[in-house]
Predict the 3D structure of the following.
Amino acid sequence: MKLEEANTGRVSVLVMSTLGFTLMFAVWLMFGVLGIPIRDEFGLTDVQLAWVVAVAVLNGAIWRLPAGIAADRFGGRRVFIAMLLITAIPAFLVSTATSYSHLLFYAFLVGFAGNSFSVGIAWVSAWWPQRQQGFALGVFGAGNVGASVTKLIGPALIAAIPAAGFFDGLVPGGWRFVPFLYVILLLVLAVATWIWTPHREIRPGQGRSIGSMLTPLRQLRVWRFSFYYLVVFGAYVALAAWLPKYYVDVYGMPLSQAALLTALFIFPASLLRPFGGYLADKVGARRMMYATFVMVLLASGVLMMPYGYIVLSMPNGDQNAVMPWEVGTMLFTALVFIIGCAMGLGKAAVYKYIPEYFPDDVGAVGGLVGSLGALGGFFLPLLFAYTGALTGFPQSTFFVIFIVSLIATLWMHFTVVKMLHRASPTLTNKFEHETPSTDEHEFMLQGSGANR
């Protein structure tokens, strides 16, 4: 294959996989906005609504490992197209749900769209050279912006399309029109991907046994990367689905405004991913992860504080309320924006690690990292709901974010320290400089005097 053809092929792979991933990500997380009218129609509690969001996220996580392996063995193109076609079926079923149990089941099925990430990662990395993979995978990962698609178009469509729909109900109305629209877009994009991407498949896993492809998963490093990804992606998925409800319930906003403000979190968390990949190529993934975790810890540390008054206890036993403490809408949105920026940079940094350490197993390793990371998007909304019900404070959402971020930060830091000690064993137990001997001291004084 000529160089020019290879360059054209990799660009078309990157463009079409990014478009497809953006659409499937929108399908995967559509309940973040649809959940509000769904809650009203079916009379759901917050915990019941959290389960609708969570089961969709769960199915978008559990198949990432086999999907990544399938892409390596059979080719990313054909697996990606198959996923677009398969996802269209449950998307249509969601638009027909008439009970909570049906909705829960259909939400689980449509969550399959989330597994497109590991397929796209394997497909793109197979076509792009290692020196450019950080940027290319960052561009593909920017498809996370699909989480904002429903938030931008959903409220307007729900308000504009009559509940009865069109053509005697053949085209559903209200919130049901959104998943119906996604059915059409999924089918169109499947055909477009078939036409405009190279038919030649690059299959790094061809001829290899499943056992050999799973061997890298025995390394603790893979599981550590997975926990990093839980913080920067799992928490991102959870917040993208949870924030509209948070704005509505805590700040009393209409759904349309809540969705737009949530998009201010989603955009940087998605669109900064290519820049994060570029920085990871230049300065290294480890520095990027330190910066990411520090930003998340600082912002979530402020957001997790319950609202009330700062009280001073006087020596005579009196207590005086000094000043009220409350995070207003502007400060809240600004801090959430910072968290979004950090997550956008961090997601790219995590996936910069993978082709560096496991160049022949991107599908398997990327699938596991993506799977375990995305499982955070399943567990965290449930933790948000249950901790909120237990404490009565909606701010407990960010206490959960703070704790998981702190654990990841400490794990990474102690691992880095251990690696440095292993590289320089003579400095393992040296915290302070040793006091030089008398002869060494005199020699240094003589040297300093000679240089004056």
Remarks:
- The longest helix spans residues 220-251.
